[in-house]
């Protein structure tokens, strides 16, 4: 048994943890508007979000890794979004899905928050009104890239 | 369809200030007779209140005597007919509430109160329905600044 036989690989712990995390994203869909239809289209079998390991939606912030903000964020729902984010366990990532969540979109008015990043830190922005499932997957792959390459945090690290 | 319109017209000769046929029959009536007019409508088969809204004529080209106009839409299942009823109301005045005739008037009037600040006399629970309680002013009034922002969360001030 030696290196030549290929029975082992060498890697860094950070890297393998990133690999595990990027292919097992539990998504919390914070769906407030019409983009939700496109999220459903992306999640269902034709486009199949499960190919990226993000197929298991958890409707509990305690059990999810990715907060996907799908739709318009009004001033009234802003504290709810903040609370959901605060309830999520580390490590956590946030995706702004659709133009409204990215920047407020066409709703430049009294009732709408001008982008979800005013409330919570956002990792990936997916543009489009609504974004096509292909765009959603590109966003998810961008997030996977980010998760893979970031320094990982784990419990016994400190 | 015609006979019900004629029936309303003949019953409220004094009340109806203006009538026209647009996409539906439109009545402009006196504010004092709103409740009797609506109760007559309800008795004569207009069993559904579709919507209540208001119009702010503050910056309307021609000067209006009173600032707001309240607009009701009613629907009759019997005649398959929609009608629109409007009346003028000033900023200081209270509008009569339709909650004693139609249950759904409760939320519709709360929405009008929230957006325009028009108070309803006899409403059981008049408070905001769409905006949050800390919100100041009424956003659909024409004198509400277009770019004014009142974020609910601290730290959103730079909107």
Give your account of this protein's structure.
Chain A is α/β, with parallel strands linked by helices and 158 residues long. Chain A has one domain: Rossmann fold (3-Layer(aba) Sandwich), CATH 3.40.50. Chain A has helices spanning 13-22, 35-43, 78-87, 99-103, 133-149; strands spanning 27-31, 66-70, 93-97, 124-126. Chain A has a four-stranded parallel sheet with strand order 1-2-3-4. In chain A, helix 1 (13-22) packs antiparallel against helix 5 and helix 2 (35-43) packs across helix 5 (133-149). By secondary structure, chain B is of the alpha/beta class. Chain B has one domain (2-121): NADH:ubiquinone oxidoreductase Nqo5 subunit (Beta Polymerase, domain 2), CATH 3.30.460. Chain B is built from three helices and seven strands, in the order H-E-E-H-E-E-E-E-H-E. Chain B has a five-stranded mixed sheet. A two-stranded parallel sheet of chain B has the order 6-7. In chain B, strand 1 and strand 2 (25-29) form a beta hairpin. Chain B is globular. Chain B starts with a helix and ends in a 38-residue tail after the last strand. The interface between A and B is medium-sized, with 12 and 16 residues.
């Amino acid at each position: 048994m030696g290196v030549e036989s290929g029975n082992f690989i060498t890697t860094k712990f950070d890297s393998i943890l990133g690999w595990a995390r990027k292919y097992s994203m539990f998504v919390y869909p914070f769906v407030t508007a019409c983009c939700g239809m496109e999220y459903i289209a992306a999640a269902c079998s034709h486009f199949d979000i499960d190919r990226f390991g993000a197929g298991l939606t958890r409707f509990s912030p305690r059990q999810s890794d990715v907060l996907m903000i799908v739709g318009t964020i009004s001033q009234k729902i802003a504290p709810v979004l903040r609370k959901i984010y605060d309830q999520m366990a580390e490590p956590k990532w946030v995706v702004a899905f659709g133009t409204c969540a990215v920047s407020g979109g066409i709703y430049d008015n009294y009732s709408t928050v001008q982008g979800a990043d005013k409330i919570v830190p956002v990792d990936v922005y997916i543009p489009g009104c609504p974004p096509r499932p292909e765009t959603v997957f590109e966003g998810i792959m961008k997030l996977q890239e980010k998760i893979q390459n970031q320094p990982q945090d784990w419990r016994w690290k400190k | 369809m015609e006979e019900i319109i004629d029936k309303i017209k003949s019953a409220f000769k004094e009340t109806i200030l203006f009538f026209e046929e647009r996409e539906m029959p439109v009545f402009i009536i006196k504010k004092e007779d709103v409740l009797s007019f609506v109760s007559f409508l309800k008795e004569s088969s207009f069993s559904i209140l579709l919507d209540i809204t208001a119009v702010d004529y503050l910056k309307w080209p021609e000067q209006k005597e009173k600032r707001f106009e309240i607009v009701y839409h009613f629907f009759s299942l019997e005649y398959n007919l929609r009608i629109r009823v409007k009346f003028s109301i000033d900023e200081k005045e209270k509008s009569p509430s339709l909650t004693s005739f139609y249950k759904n008037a409760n939320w519709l009037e709360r929405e009008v109160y929230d957006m325009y600040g028009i108070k309803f006399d006899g409403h059981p629970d008049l408070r905001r329905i769409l905006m949050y309680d800390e919100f100041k002013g009424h956003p659909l009034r024409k004198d509400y600044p277009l770019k004014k922002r009142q974020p609910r969360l601290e730290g959103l001030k730079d909107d």
